[in-house]
Structure formats: C-alpha cells, structure tokens
Design a protein that fits this description.
Elements (H helix, E strand, L loop, with lengths): L13 H8 L15 H15 L4 E6 L2 H9 L5 H4 L1 H5 L3 E3 L3 E4 L4 E6 L4 H6 L6 E4 L7 H8 L7
Parallel strand pairs: 1-4, 1-5
Antiparallel strand pairs: 2-3, 3-4
C-alpha cells in the first residue's frame, strides 16, 4: 500500500547507518545534543513499522511532556517525516501514537512514576527505546525491558 505513495526520508549519517545495520538486539548509544540520536530512532521506527505488519514500538522518556516535545515538534519530528503518508491516509498521528496502515504502532510513553511498570506489565512490545535513560530509575528500565519480545 505504501508503494503507491513514496516517502522520502533524510539519509542516516555513517554512524547511524552502522547502528541500523547491526544485528544486535540491544544497543546503547549516546552523543552530544543534536547529534542525531532522536532522529535515528524516529527514522528507524518508521522503516521498521512500514515493513513489518503489526510491529509494536515505543519510546520512553522520564516525563510525558518531554517525549511528546522531542518527537512531535521540530524539523525531523514524526509529523514532518510522515507528512506525505499522513495526507495519503496511510498513517494516523495523534499526540502520543502513530498508527500505520498495516497496524504497526509507535507509542510515546513516560516513566516518571512506578505506576508505569504496572501499566505495561504483560503487554509485549517488539522494540522499546529509552531516551535520556540516565534520568530513569534502573528498576523501571528493568521492569519495562522484561516485556520486550520478538516472535520469529
């Protein structure tokens, strides 16, 4: 379905491409502000979701306002990157979720309290990212990574 409407995304930088091409199931990477980490995550999630029906992805930050601002505003935000597909009706975007034509989803989440561990308990996700993870308590990250799974 997406073949009818071509989406053009900015290219990865060389280091971003190395991460994208990796076969690793867990990757930790960091860098300076505006180094391209958030863009990498958004582009990778778009590519994954457009190619894998039913894929469930999420992005966590400590505070809800931060995860929304980081991913829904700016020149490489989800609404800007997916504008062509949104206008074509292939993608639906609201404040905290992007839904693709093939039922793949990207959700924006926070983990500012322990309730988040209960909220997500038993709900499997395929890809999970923690942005600014040094701000998030280790026990919350451990609890949330326990529900990341990928079927064959």
């Amino acid at each position: 379905m997406a073949n009818e409407c071509v989406l053009t995304l900015p290219k990865f930088k060389p280091k971003q491409q190395v991460v994208f091409d990796s076969k690793a199931t867990e990757i930790l990477f960091g860098g300076d502000t505006r180094a391209g980490k958030s863009f990498y995550i958004r582009k990778a999630y778009i590519l994954f979701c457009s190619q894998i029906p039913g894929l469930q992805c999420d992005i966590f930050r400590l505070h809800n306002d931060d995860v929304i601002a980081e991913n829904m505003t700016g020149e490489t935000s989800f609404p800007i990157l997916l504008d062509v597909w949104t206008k074509a009706g292939l993608v639906r975007i609201n404040q905290t979720e992007i839904v693709f034509w093939n039922d793949s989803r990207i959700t924006l989440e926070h983990c500012s309290d322990d309730i988040v561990m209960l909220k997500h308990q038993g709900i499997a996700k395929h890809v999970r990212t923690f942005c600014e993870s040094c701000q998030i308590l280790e026990r919350r990250i451990r609890a949330l990574t326990g529900w990341v799974t990928m079927s064959e």
